[in-house]
């Protein structure tokens, strides 16, 4: 009878150990699932941030293109004004030279 009780005690101990291991495995699994959920949320947030950054970059590129075109337009106007000033200076010099001789 002692042998049977000892075997039952040994089996009971193994069952308890197995249950403890199973309980730990469940806790570990839950922790991993929680971590995975958090990582998915972080990934979604980063994807949204990347989308926002891409959109901002596209807007900046469009603004840069617009500013470059505007700069070229202004440069053309300034060059035109400088040519007009040079022409007027030439006319004034020729008028001044004619008035000094005449």
Description:
98% of the residues lie in helices and 0% in strands. By secondary structure, the chain is mainly α. It is rod-shaped, with a radius of gyration of 43 Å.
Nutshell version of this structure?
With 102 residues, the protein is an all-alpha fold. The chain has one helix at 2-101. The mean pLDDT is 95.
The secondary-structure element order is H
> Which residues form runs of ≥5 with pLDDT under 50?
none
Percent of sequence in beta strands: under 5%
Cα(first) to Cα(last) distance is 148 Å
Shape: rod-shaped
Rg is 43 Å
The count of β-strands is: 0
Count of DSSP helices?
1
Which structural class do you get from the secondary structure elements?
mainly alpha
Largest sheet: none
Helix content: over 70%
User: Whole-number average pLDDT?
Assistant: 95
Name some characteristics of this structure:
single chain; 102 residues; mainly alpha; 1 helix
How would the blueprint of this fold be written?
Layout: H1 2-101
